Known about the structure:
Blueprint: H1 8-25, H2 35-42, H3 46-52, H4 56-79, H5 86-99, H6 101-109, H7 114-123, H8 125-131, H9 139-162, H10 169-185
Amino acid sequence: xxxxxxxKRAAETAALIGDALVCxxxxxxxxxxxxxxxxxxxxxxxxxxxxxxxxxxxxMDYLCDRLVSEYLRSFIQSRQGQEPKDLDLYLFAxxxxxxNSSVINVLVENGQEEKLYLSLRRNCGIFFSQYVPEVDLNxxxxxxxxxxxxxxxxxxxxxxxxLGEHRPIxxxxxxxxxxxxxxxxxxxxS
Length: 190
């Protein structure tokens, strides 16, 4: 796992390394890319890279975590304390990920889509702390809930990117919300 020290300079350096990886992955696959190429592209020293990351996988995890936590915080701020609806969540997610589609496209092209879902899982505490009152759920119930919500959200974003992002965001979000309503009526989530 990555380990970014606290501080503005460390965050900027980590961002440089992440941006270098995304840039290089638009030209090469992750399996043919070396840490040395990323280090050179990011213009950082080898020791700086290893202070923050052990592998290129760590850099990809960092990129996902950074974007997911920023996405969740932005969504919460946009709602200003209002209870979110599925349509709101999907619309916001699609708009946010459209603006950051280079990372999603890199994940899809390199068969690393699972990283988005795992990052959503790692960062979901941000969302839970805001919208889920203190509820007595065991770990298995929370895991099932997260799998349904986050799995659907991450797969929707990935599929949307895989299809070339040609369908309007609002149409895609409305369709996803409609499917959720159908599943609710059929008792899938009761």
